[in-house]
Design brief:
Layout: H1 2-22, H2 28-53, H3 58-65, H4 67-82
Length: 92
């Protein structure tokens, strides 16, 4: 139960930043790239390695899968601070 609570907290900022700010600001390509890298290059390989090779218990596999949220956290924060996500979405 504690791990699920941690998951909710870890997902709160990246979800708000990616869906609410970056995509709405027109930075869809960055969001797509970040989601693909975080999930397919970090989250899934770590969880698969822990499950298939190390035979770790399911709650720890879920915790390892949450590492993708940590990557998204820092990536989203950096992108928002750089203000590169701000695009003019209307005609001048």
């Amino acid at each position: 139960m504690l791990i699920l609570c941690l998951g909710i907290v870890l997902r709160s900022f990246p979800m708000t930043a990616i869906v609410g700010v970056l995509r709405a600001g027109g930075d869809v390509k960055f969001c797509l790239g970040q989601d693909i890298v975080a999930q397919w290059c970090i989250g899934i390989p770590l969880a698969a390695f822990a499950a298939l090779v190390l035979k770790v218990e399911p709650e720890w596999i879920y915790l390892l899968f949450l590492t993708e949220e940590v990557v998204k956290w820092f990536g989203s924060l950096h992108r928002m601070k750089s203000k590169k996500w701000m695009k003019n979405l209307i005609e001048n």
